[in-house]
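Q: Got a minute? One more chain.
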Amino acid sequence: MSDDDARLLAPFRPRGARVVGRVLIVAILAGAAFVLLTSPGHPGIGYDPANNVAMCLVVGFAVWLLWRHAGVLAVVSPEGIVVRNLVRTRALEWAQVESVRLGQGQPWVTLDLADGTTLAVMAVQSSDGAFGRAEAARLATLVVRYGEATEPER
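A: Always. Here it is, folded:
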């Protein structure tokens, strides 16, 4: 595989979302630790155990959500693309992808699929500016290079 092919097939990852997500995780954990460690434990003052458990559950969910957001990814190969968004991971063959869109005001790339549906690719984000647009163009190049969709059989 040439260097150009290796660059073309590199995984897609957002820049800004990864940094912001990880910084927010640290801030939320530090804030929660501060509140839990500095709240007085006297009866009638501070937090009772149920409040501590509830806060830990909320903080845990927020950290999980930010971790997933920071970990969105699209892995490409000559055979297809695997898209990992917040909750779901989906694998597609290139023939299933008709086009790549990153329109004005859209937060991330959208793939138009041969079955008439769309799939968000959160790994390529418009908030990354020129880098995001270049990554959208690279993804469109992969769609053209490795196969456009054929007409579905009826």
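A: Strands lie at 73-76, 80-84, 89-93, 97-101, 108-113, 118-125.
Q: Perfect, thanks.
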